[in-house]
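Retry 2 of 3 after timeout on previous attempt. Resubmitting structure tokens to design endpoint.
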């Protein structure tokens, strides 16, 4: 028995979601592992939906160069993201970030990232919430994957809350709302872009546009969750 295993006997690891003790070798307790639906490996790389539910060409989503998500946005994961995003449970960034890192390693294995960016929030939202949940995810990913983190995207105008709009309204709500702080900061770079929830892809699309206009070589998007088809 190695030292790490011995430590687990006296200091058992707890599930990052519910706090229950978990078996050696597991990430989460049985209940939390079973309560979250993962997106399968057979997904569309442009809308992140399952191939059988691909929305590209439907007018309901922005098709992106490269995008992947970890979970289907519903049930337990929806509740956990709400806790993380709106109720100050920032410790969840560690577990969420680990899951996103695993997905990046799985589906973007051939990419060599020069930097990691994250979706910005407005000054008003930052004042209300006190933190940018997407930045917390990005910090965890950057630490685990050893990718330089760059805070180079900014929201330049206030917009309506995306989650309060219809899918059609979301597609245009964010137009021209995101820009680069420094136009030369991503020139020639392959960028990993982080977001929490990908619905229509409008937010990510605005960020990708800003990065590409700044000279980025390529942009890959990693999200924690994407909604099931019936949500559109």
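Retry 2 succeeded. Sequence:
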């Amino acid at each position: 028995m190695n030292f790490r295993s011995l430590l687990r006997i006296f200091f058992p690891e707890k599930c990052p979601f519910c706090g229950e003790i978990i078996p050696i070798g597991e990430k989460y307790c049985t209940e939390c592992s079973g309560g979250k639906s993962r997106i399968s490996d057979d997904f569309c790389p442009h809308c992140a939906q399952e191939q059988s539910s691909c929305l590209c060409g439907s007018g309901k989503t922005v098709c992106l160069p490269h995008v992947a998500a970890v979970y289907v946005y519903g049930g337990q994961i929806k509740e956990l993201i709400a806790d993380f995003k709106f109720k100050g449970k920032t410790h969840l960034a560690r577990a969420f970030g680990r899951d996103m890192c695993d997905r990046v390693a799985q589906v973007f294995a051939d990419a060599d990232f020069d930097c990691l960016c994250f979706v910005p929030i407005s000054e008003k939202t930052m004042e209300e919430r006190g933190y940018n949940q997407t930045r917390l995810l990005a910090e965890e990913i950057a630490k685990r994957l050893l990718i330089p983190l760059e805070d180079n995207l900014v929201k330049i105008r206030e917009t309506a809350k995306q989650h309060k709009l219809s899918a059609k309204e979301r597609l245009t709500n964010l137009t021209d709302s995101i820009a680069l702080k420094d136009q030369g900061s991503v020139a020639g770079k392959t960028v990993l872009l982080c977001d929490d929830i990908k619905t229509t892809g409008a937010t990510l699309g605005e960020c990708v546009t800003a990065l590409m206009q700044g000279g980025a070589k390529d942009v890959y998007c990693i999200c924690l969750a994407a909604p099931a088809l019936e949500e559109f």
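Attempt log closed. The CA atoms of residues 175 and 206 lie 7 Å apart.
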